[in-house]
Amino acid sequence: MSYFSLILKNPFRNKTRSALAIVGIAVGIATIVALGLVTGGLKAATSETLNAGGSDLTVTEANSNFMSGTIDESRVGELANISGVKNVAGVLRKTPIINTSVEGGFGSFSVNGIELDKLSVVDIEGVNGSLFSPGSNEIIIGKTAADSLDKKVGDTINLFGEDFTITGIFETGNIMYDGTAFTSLDTLQDITNSPGEVSTIYIQAQDDTNLTELSQTIENTYPNELSATSASALTDRINEGLSIIDSATWAISLLAIFIGGVGVINTMIMSVYERTREIGVLKAVGWRSRRILGMIMGESIVLTLIAAVVGTVLGILAAVAGLSFLGGEISPAYSLDVFLRGFLVAILVGVLGGIYPAYRASQLPPTEALRYE
Amino acid sequence: MNEHIIEIKDLKKRYDEGKIAALNGLDLKIKKGEFVSIMGPSGSGKSTLLNMIGALDVADEGTIKVAGIDLMKTKDLSQFRSQEIGFVFQMHNLIPNLNVLENVEIPMFENNLNSKQMQERALELLKAVGLEDKIRQTPNKLSGGERQRVAIARALVNHPSIILADEPTGSLDSKTGDIILKLLRDLHEQENVTLVMVTHEPYVAKMADRIVYVRDGKVYEEDDKID
């Protein structure tokens, strides 16, 4: 038998108590891992969504909520004439009242009006079926929306009091678009009584254009009217918001260290207390204090490492289940950083929780320990 | 003439903030290879004396030299306990979650031996105490006598120069007690190890080369059966 195998064996002398301690720590680790995976997944999805689109700049009404304002359609043509702009698409976005919710979309199901030749600006390169005809009640629908609404090519859908024929189904891989539908801009403006209005203008810039300068030019040309944001700037802004979750994860980590640490101290103190006589015997047979200290510390770390493994598995399951419950469009971001954080917290809990009981055991006077009943 | 392996002079130990004098100027010399029984009434200081010899406790005053080491001047006594002393307690004090073999291996952890060497030495001693067929049993599956035999094997595993036995037959029936005593005496002779045994039982004490009577923390009579 080796010293190491003794350390591995001892924590399981009282299986129930050890199991409870492991569960207590594992819940904390699972929370850290799950939040880390979800936050990472959200960041990756956001970045992918905002950067994957065919547009470089998103122009919205100044001082309005993102994508909820209105812009005069004439600005679309004007923006096309600004130096450095390659292509421009005005999109009117309206949210119809429908009975079925669309799972996995970016918010509620919306219908976008766009000129047929501008679809590439919103990343739609092709459809399963055919595109809509300008000015008609034809519509193409995203794969996520089609699945949720149980619609296929040739079906009709009633939107804003009018029946639309679904001519095609598209899939961009971008959660912002795949949960929506696109139709002719003229048609949507007519039936929603929004003549000459668009909600957002998407701009494709020429390759050598400085996006920050272009944004500035647009905002300076239309002060207090238009706001231009590049995809990367938007990503940064959203990531800034997500960093709050990161801070929350660290706060939870600290809480897990504290709660787990108290649990481990309790478990190890009880263990040392019950084994007082045994520790006296180990001293009597010549074990040095630091070997006893190492044994108890080792047992504490073994407990927390097992908790780290259990917690990591639980965390992954929770993240996968949580994200699939939200529609499954976002995948957990498996990164070494998240798992290392979980294991680091576990080891820290093991060391902090074990240090006092281990010190106490190592300092027990042998005669008193041997007399202990 | 044999040299003295234990030399104690004017040893004093007080407990309870000096109110209780467990050892009160005790003098004792024990020769290498000797078998000495220590007798005396409860509270006379027998076990305290044994603890002092085994460096489990430190005296307040006096001198105590064991195996050439001045225990009053040595700070870390764990190495001394590991190399020079083997303890046999009244209650076997085996570790319940370890099997017989592992219990005997425990004292060897400080000796820089590998697992194989530790196992070989433990098996050698378990064979000597007649437990080679029970090495994988845990203590709760053993009889009282078997447990005490494991404790004896554990005490001898590091080749100590002195075995300290505190009432080794105290928790056993007389027949099992006799077997344990015979085993202890045989091993003491075979391994040429000094045996110091605390006992209440006169017939047990008589098996020793010499009986030392302790009362009020002092040796008040020595019954030398050989010289």
- Strand tally of chain B is 10
Derived structural class of chain A: alpha+beta
Low-confidence stretches of chain B: none
Helix content of chain B: 25-40%
Terminal Cα span of chain A: 28 Å
Quote the average pLDDT of chain B: 89
What's the order of the H and E elements of chain A? HHEEHEEEEHEEHEHEEHEHHHHH
The helix tally of chain B amounts to: 7
The first-level CATH class name of chain B? Alpha Beta
**Largest sheet features of chain A:** 10 strands, mixed
CATH homologous superfamily placement of chain B: P-loop containing nucleotide triphosphate hydrolases
What does this structure look like?
The complex is a heterodimer of chains A (373) and B (227). By secondary structure, chain A is an alpha+beta fold. Helix content of chain A is 55%, strand content 16%. Chain A folds into two domains: 3-48 and 237-371, no CATH class; 57-208, no CATH class. In chain A, the strands form two sheets. In chain A, strands 1, 3, 4, 5, 6, 7, 8, 9, 11 and 12 form a ten-stranded mixed beta sheet that branches. The longest helix of chain A is centred in the C-terminal third of the chain and has 44 residues, at 231-274. The two termini of chain A are 28 Å apart. Chain B has 227 residues and is of the alpha/beta class. Chain B is 30% helix and 28% strand. Chain B is built from seven helices and ten strands. The radius of gyration of chain B is 17 Å and the shape is globular. The model of chain B has no long low-confidence stretch (mean pLDDT 89). At the A-B interface, helix 1, helix 9 and helix 12 of A face helix 2, helix 3 and helix 4 of B.
